[in-house]
Specification:
This protein is α+β, with helices and mostly antiparallel strands. The chain has helices at 3-13, 67-70, 73-81, 102-111, 166-169, 198-213, 219-234, 242-254, 259-272, and strands spanning 18-22, 26-27, 84-87, 94-99, 116-119, 124-129, 135-139, 142-145, 151-152, 162-163. Strands 4, 5, 6, 7, 8 and 10 form a six-stranded mixed sheet that branches.
Length: 275
């Protein structure tokens, strides 16, 4: 039996979702039906094993613990071409901190709690019990591989697997950009004023600030939609001022948006409304 296939079946038997890697430590390309995103990206693939294609063509989402799939004739052809075995850390209930060079290892030894480690070609994998979102380049030479990701199988490693610490989780928390003053083109306005009182406009701006600050995901889209709503409601009569725009931009920047993204979203909203 092919050594990679044998290792994959052994891992799958222990509940570790696996997939083959080709040269360059990358998954095999998409099948003809999915090439060039013809399948629409197989939406809702958020857990390993959800790719239903006949061959492992969707990277980490093709990882599986099903021996019938791993040992199928189509996959057997791929295993003969494979150069390594990969697994989905999140599907196995772990997080891999991928340390790519000596300086990254030094940082980890000073900063992170000891855990199970496995040597790589240039560095080490530190493996923790628990899952989190994956992210690349969280600092120089450090990647986080867990949910919706794959890592090369390098053997069981050594040491006890420690619980995933908050120190690692904090590595992917996006720090807000410093709030910068940005000049925004506020429409001069020539339409009928619907505000009646200054309090109506103030309430609208305050609600928009709150909507931006409460966005838990898709911040770019939330900021744009909020700018669009404010401009469509308050932007045609001339009551909207630079001060109002600055408040909205500041709220967006506290969510991690850059000044440039704010300006682009504002301009796009004005263009969409024909202002």
């Amino acid at each position: 039996m092919n050594a990679h296939l044998h290792a994959a079946l052994d891992l799958a038997g222990r509940g570790v979702p696996v997939l083959p890697l080709r040269a360059g430590k990358v998954p095999f390309g998409n099948c003809p039906a999915c090439r060039d995103n013809a399948c629409g990206g197989r939406p809702n693939m958020k857990t390993p094993g959800t790719c239903q294609c006949p061959r492992p063509c969707h990277g980490w989402a093709a990882a599986t613990v099903n021996p019938d799939v791993i040992n199928s004739p189509v996959w057997a052809t791929v295993w003969r071409q494979a150069e390594a075995v990969a697994f989905c850390p999140g599907g196995a209930g772990v997080t891999v901190v991928d340390l790519d060079h000596a300086d990254a290892i030094t940082w980890a030894r000073r900063t992170l709690p000891p855990t199970r480690t496995a040597p790589t070609t240039r560095g080490e994998h530190w493996i923790y019990r628990g899952t989190m979102p994956s992210a690349n380049a969280v600092r120089d030479g450090v990647d986080i591989k867990s949910a919706m990701s794959y890592a090369r199988w390098l053997g069981p490693g050594t040491g006890a697997t420690a619980p995933l610490p908050d120190t690692v989780r904090a590595l992917i928390v996006r720090k807000p950009s410093p709030v910068r003053t940005v000049s925004a083109q506020v429409p001069a306005g020539d339409g009928e004023c619907r505000h009646r009182t200054p309090a109506y406009l103030e309430r609208g701006i305050a609600m928009a600030e709150q909507r931006i600050r409460e966005a838990s995901s898709g911040v770019h889209a939330a900021v744009y939609r909020t700018f669009l709503a404010v401009l469509s409601t308050h932007g045609r009569c001339g009551c909207l001022t630079d001060t109002h725009a600055a408040r909205l931009f500041a709220a967006a920047q506290t969510k991690g948006e850059s000044a440039r993204h704010c300006a682009d979203a504002w301009t796009n909203a004005r263009t969409a409304l024909g202002m």
